[in-house]
Amino acid sequence: MTAVDPLRPGGADERVVSARLGVVGQIREVVRYRELLLGLVRKELKVKYKDSTLGFLWSLLNPALSLGVFYVVFQIFLGAGIPAFAIFLLCGLLVWNLFSASLAGATGSVTAAGGLVNKVYFPRVILPLAAVGAAVVHFFLQGIVLVAALMVTRYDVELTWLPLLALAFVATVALATGFAIMLSAVNVYARDTQHILELSLLAWFWLTPIVYPVDVVITQTEARSVPDWLYLLNPIVPLVMTFQRVLHNRVDFEQEVRLRENGPIDIQITRILPDESFLWYVSANLVVIGIGVALIGAALHVFSRLEGNFAEEL
Amino acid sequence: MSAVEVERVSKRFGLREEPAWTLKERVLRLGRRAPVRDFWALEKVSLEVAEGETLGLIGHNGSGKSTLLKCIGGILQPSSGSIRTKGRLASLLELGAGFHGDLTGRENVFLNGSILGLSRKQLEARFDEIVAFSELERFIDNPVKTYSSGMFVRLGFAVAVNVDPDILLVDEVLAVGDEAFQDKCINRVREFQRDGRTIVFVTHGVETVRQICDRAAVLNAGRLIAIGDPDECIRRYRDSLLNRTTWYGDDEPDDPEVLTSARSMATQIVRIDRISVERVDGAIDSPVGPAEPVKVHLDWSADEVVDDVAVSFMVFDEEGKTLYGANSDQLTQPVGPLSGGGRLTFTIDRLPLMRGVFTLSLGFHTHDGEVVHDFAEHRLEVMSEGVEAGILDLRPRIEAQITEAT
User: Fold this and answer.
1) What is the pLDDT of residue B16?
2) Do A209 and A92 meet the contact criterion of CB atoms below 8 Å apart?
3) Which of A135, A118, A213 is nearest to A180 (CA)?
């Protein structure tokens, strides 16, 4: 909608309302309004925990509780036997929560800010970005728990591979941002998006190797001679795998199995992750970052087309 | 150089003829669009606002004035045409838009300020001034959900006027708060004007336009019908209220009339020097009570003997609707010939108005009404402590008759 600048402090600035903002224009506006972005993230966090006794602890309790439930179900009931299951699970949850919280928060962000969108000019794309920002803050808070757990147990992390985490983090944020921008704009016109998203996220969670190791899937695809790259189409998979590979740091483990009742104990080696090289992880993450950036570009394009009529739809 | 240039801006709204389609309906009726009726809120509106000028947009409800303001502010995107603005722009379309009830006044000042485009540093520097302007020092650390609506808008206005824009867009927001705060707001607007800033504002209150605008523009059914001198525009606006003409369907809107002050066009051979309203107790220009006798005095002077003269007497309400209008000929109480100077007094035995701010419009013109000698307007405020509602004081007597006994 608005090309160039409404409110640059102190600039001799001309603004034309008519031409749609291009992708570059959108990015420029966001940079100009970065303080608002920070302000909105701060607001989001403040409002979320306002008047609750436990405050920020809630964002830590959430993964703790999931951890308890999944531990009971998978380790005890189903006997998955993954060593250091808590750390394995937290690796996946951390990535997943960052992704899903961004999408869930962003989808309703424009519609929820209807009063503002109708009354004040500011780059609307800030709204979904603020939701991603809030999710990033939660990511680091929950990350503290994981780091604390690793330090207390003196867990053997793959130290030389640590930079991969930064790559995976960027990839997750890029992917989440692309989806967030797209969904927030579409939701203005089709409010069902919120509900569809809820269901999709549920399915997506279980289709991602968070509570079970990715090798379970690979074994099945090999057995059915289905190409296993099919599974890698889910772009979250390599990101979760990266965190598991670096922090959980187990490619396989030995499991005692008894083939017959009272028979001899057999040692079976169960795989968790495919034994891929450092370079494989780097390139997998770079591919996802590429997908994420392309998605952001497409999403900004769609957003620019749709935002002109936001004020009328809200 | 103009601060705002609006060029042939049109804005189309799709009016839905049934409730919004859900995704399910969209899928089921694949390939068909929801039935939509076009409504042109603005049609090929062109205007310019010079730097440092204050322009008032007037027009009745649905005339498109708020839509135009939103387009200038970048909130709505025009369907065609373009708008250029030069300078920092702030829109006061709603005070406290974006305030979050759970956050404190302080937190909201920072959030709202950054929505309006201020940096944190700038806000910190202006924070004390903002709080002082809002007069909310004692409450600033309470959540705004505990504020009264008056406190809420006061804080909103305080933030907004401290944005320090080159161009200020204002929509009806001056009509908030108590009288003292309104005065403060008007003063602040005048300060903006003195600083040479550009202001575009939308209002129903013609009194405000008269008070603060350099020029006015009249919109009617999405078209600009007149632009220029505020008094003349107000007159055109009143005309458009009387016969709500709409021109749907035309391809080319007529060019807006450019109106210059009619007072300069008036012959001025007989001049209105002063108008005053006298209350029954002798007070001048104080609010009058309903059903009271009122005298309106018109002091005039004439350089020559004016023979062909009649005086008109009109009363408008706040939105410019004519409540009463007649001239001395119609009332068969001729006033001429006039020469030298003197006073005309209009006595109303019982003012049939209840409450509100009204405009008295008095004028000298020839008997045939073709030539205007002079005219002037005056404020008439009516206050009532009664419990009755409305603006007319009818005060009926009620008689009860029982025609059938049980």
Assistant:
1) 66
2) yes
3) A135
The alpha-carbon gap from A31 to the nearest alpha carbon of chain B, in Å, equals: 12
Query: Residue B310, SS3?
Result: strand
Q: Which of A6, A40, A120 sits opposite B97 (nearest CB)?
A: A120
Subunit contact A15:B120, Cβ cutoff 8 A: no
Cβ pair A128, A106 in contact under 8 A: yes
| Strand stretches in B54-163, DSSP E | 54-58, 80-86, 89-92
Sorting pLDDT into bands at 50, 70 and 90, what band is B64? confident
Q: Which of B194, B121, B132 is nearest to B158 (CA)?
A: B132
Distance CA B223, CA B218 (A): 8
Q: What is d(CA A188, CA A127) in angstroms, rounded to the nearest whole number?
A: 13
Confidence of residue B26 (pLDDT cuts 50, 70, 90): low
Provide the percentage of residues in chain B whose pLDDT is more than 70: 87
Distance CA B308, CA B297 (A): 21
Q: Is B76 within 8 Å of chain A by CB?
A: yes
Q: Which residues of chain A fall short of a pLDDT of 70?
A: 1-21, 51, 228, 258-259
The Cα of A114 is separated from the nearest Cα of chain B by a number of Å equal to 9
Q: If you ran DSSP here, which 8-state letter would residue A251 be given?
A: S
Question: Which residue in the block uniquely carries the two structure tokens 């220009």?
Answer: B285
Q: Does the CB of A119 have a partner CB in chain B at under 8 Å?
A: yes
Q: DSSP readout, A161-204? A: GTHHHHHHHHHHHHHHHHHHHHHHHHHHH-TTHHHHHHHHHHHH
Q: Chain A within 8 Å of B16 (Cβ-Cβ)?
A: no
ipTM of the complex: 0.72
Tell me the percentage of chain A whose pLDDT exceeds 70: 92
DSSP assignment of A204-223 equals HHHTSTTSS-HHHHHHHHHH
Query: What is the Cα Rg of chain A in Å?
Result: 22
Q: Which of B180, B188, B159, B9 is nearest to B92 (CA)?
A: B159
Q: Is the pLDDT of residue B172 over 80?
A: no
- Reference A17, options A121, A109, A116, A158; nearest CA is A121
φ, ψ at A303 (rounded to 5°): -60, -45
Q: How close, in Å, is residue A182 to chain B by CA atoms?
A: 16
Which residues are within 8 A (CB) of B199 and not within 5 positions of it... i.e. 6 or more apart? Answer: B53, B54, B55, B167, B168, B169, B170, B189, B192, B193, B212
Beta bridge partners of B36: B16
Contact partners, residue B26, CB within 8 Å, separation at least 6? A190
Cβ distance A18 to B82 less than 8 Å, yes or no, reads yes
Interface of A with B in 1-20 (CB under 8 A): 1-2, 6-9, 11-20
For B33, which DSSP code? P
- What CA–CA distance (Å, rounded) separates B103 from B115? 15
* Contacting residues of B for A309, CB less than 8 Å apart: 77
Other beta carbons within 10 angstroms of residue B291's beta carbon come to: 17
DSSP type of residue B81: E
Sign of torsion over alpha carbons A215, A219, A221, A222: positive
Spell out the residues 6+ positions from residue B58 whose beta carbon is closer than 8 angstroms to its own.
B65, B202, B203, B204, B206, B209, B216, B217, B218, B219, B233, B234, B237
Tens-place pLDDT, residues B305-356: 888 899 999 998 877 788 898 999 889 998 878 888 899 999 999 988 888 8
Q: What is the dihedral of CA A23, B74, A179, A197, to 10 degrees?
A: -160
Written as six digits, the tokens of A118 are: 């109708």
- pLDDT digits 0-9 by tens, B187-225: 888 888 888 899 998 887 777 788 788 899 998 888 888
